[in-house]
Design a protein that fits this description.
Blueprint lengths: L1 E6 L2 E7 L2 E6 L2 E6 L5 E5 L2 E7 L2 E7 L2 E5 L5 E5 L2 E3 L5 H17 L5 H23 L3
Parallel strand pairs: 1-9
Antiparallel strand pairs: 1-2, 3-4, 3-6, 5-8, 6-7, 7-10, 8-9
This protein binds adenosine-5'-triphosphate.
């Protein structure tokens, strides 16, 4: 199945793959060849690309996935990193900053709360993938 994931930095991964496991708002889904066309909203978490018996783990934040009628799987993500590219201390520091912001503010607007919460989830995904797959 042809698979592409792009971020604002460019194409992160593009190849023919067996299957991809994706964290979506509706839960984790696995897309295999010839899956019916569909779209879904991606949420922060772990993504697994299965290729030739190997697994490429990625940390993703928010995004959008599309299984096209042509049989191609296409993902646009706000951020995505391969496990080996994750800077764990940067993620830990960013998570600590976001948690501190949440603690400091009493009457936070819902929109600010949601933004900080999303940022914590993004850093948690990086930390989880970075730790699990560290060589
Ligand atoms: P920070 O607060 O640590 O500066 P951030 O979480 O605000 O970072 P993002 O907007 O999520 O940063 O991402 C900006 C760019 O930096 C993206 O290309 C993303 O892949 C990369 N990036 C962010 N954090 C990490 C990390 N811990 N390890 C590797 N790349 C990262």
């Amino acid at each position: 199945m042809p698979f592409t994931i792009v971020t604002p930095n460019g194409v992160l991964y593009q190849d023919d793959v067996e299957k991809v496991t994706i964290p979506t708002q509706a839960g984790e889904i696995t897309i295999l060849e010839a899956h019916a066309p569909m779209v879904s909203i991606i949420q922060a978490g772990e993504m697994h690309i299965h290729k030739d018996g190997n697994v490429v783990p990625l940390a993703v934040s928010t995004g959008f996935m599309e299984m096209r009628p042509t049989g191609e799987l296409f993902i646009i993500a706000d951020t995505a990193e391969r496990a080996e590219d994750i800077d764990l201390s940067r993620a830990e520091a960013a998570k600590a900053r976001a948690e501190e912001l949440l603690k400091q503010q009493d009457n936070m607007a819902d929109v600010d709360f949601a933004r900080i919460q999303a940022s914590i989830e993004k850093e948690l995904a990086r930390i989880s993938v970075g730790k699990k797959y560290r060589r």
